[in-house]
């Protein structure tokens, strides 16, 4: 569709982009132009481009990955986002399983020990990491650093230095795992923050079983959420 050089209203920009998606000119997995590219292509303001992008996001037609760009997730309005593959994650299903098994082996035991013998300083470190997660906004890199700090606070609360040594030795693999989870959350960490808040509150009351149930539920949720996005091998 050819557009004249006059500035378009947000709805006109949106309709133009929507037609490209619905006609499958832009297919599932295709990267869509950035805001600045849309401005140049159609002679519109950045506000109009951004509003159009946000409307497509709200309809689950595109997803924006921080630092990577926006990608088509569906060619049909109303289709379930979770069931659609958008390219591939840089993480295989087996690699996801390896990290979750490692975390269960060390983190779950650490939770039990923290609830048994954790100090006020341990719980304060957990709270501070949670606050940093909340303050990260939509910044995936800041969120991941705070997320890692939160789980390391759980492990340090066990007062078993060998657990922390093992986890720090695997930091690159764990951070890769956390980064993939964050970058495919479209900058929305509200659900994760609610879960981490529940983890903190349960740990604070020394309810180890509840902490483990919440973490286990997160493993299952992410596995279902990304089941079509893991890379092969």
Characterise the protein shown here.
By secondary structure, this protein is mainly alpha-helical. The chain folds into two domains: 63 residues, Arc Repressor Mutant, subunit A; 133 residues, GntR ligand-binding domain-like (Four Helix Bundle (Hemerythrin (Met), subunit A), Up-down Bundle). It has ten helices and three strands, in the order H-E-H-H-E-E-H-H-H-H-H-H-H. A three-stranded antiparallel β-sheet has the order 1-3-2. The N terminus is likely disordered.
The biggest beta sheet is recorded as: 3 strands, antiparallel
The shape, in one word, is elongated
How many structural domains in the coordinates? 2
Q: Which stretches of 5+ consecutive residues score pLDDT under 50?
A: 1-8, 80-87
Helix content: 55-70%
The rounded Rg comes to 21 Å
Strand fraction band? under 5%
Number of strands: 3
Question: What are the defining features of this structure?
Answer:
3 strands; 10 helices; mainly alpha; 63% helix; disordered N terminus; 2 domains; single chain; 233 residues; Four Helix Bundle (Hemerythrin (Met), subunit A)
């Amino acid at each position: 569709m050819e557009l004249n050089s006059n500035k378009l209203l947000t709805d006109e920009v949106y309709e133009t982009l929507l037609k490209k998606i619905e006609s499958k000119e832009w297919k599932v997995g295709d990267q869509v132009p950035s805001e600045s590219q849309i401005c140049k292509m159609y002679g519109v303001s950045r506000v109009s481009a951004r509003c159009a992008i946000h409307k497509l996001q709200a309809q689950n037609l595109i997803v924006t990955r921080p630092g990577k760009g926006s990608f088509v997730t569906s060619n049909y309005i109303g289709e379930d986002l979770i069931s659609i593959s958008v390219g591939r994650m840089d993480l295989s299903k087996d690699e996801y399983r390896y990290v979750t098994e490692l975390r269960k082996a060390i983190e779950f035991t650490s939770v039990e020990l923290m609830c048994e013998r954790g100090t006020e300083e341990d719980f304060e470190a957990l709270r501070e990491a949670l606050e940093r997660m909340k303050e990260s906004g939509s910044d995936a890199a800041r969120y991941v650093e705070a997320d890692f700090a939160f789980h390391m606070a759980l492990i340090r609360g066990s007062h078993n230095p060998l657990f922390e040594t093992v986890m720090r030795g695997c930091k690159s693999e764990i951070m890769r795992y956390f980064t993939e989870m964050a970058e495919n959350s479209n900058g929305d960490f509200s659900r994760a923050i609610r879960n981490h808040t529940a983890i903190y509150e349960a740990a604070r009351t020394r309810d180890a079983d509840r902490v483990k149930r919440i973490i286990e539920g997160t493993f299952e949720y992410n596995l279902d959420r990304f089941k079509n996005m893991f890379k092969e091998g």
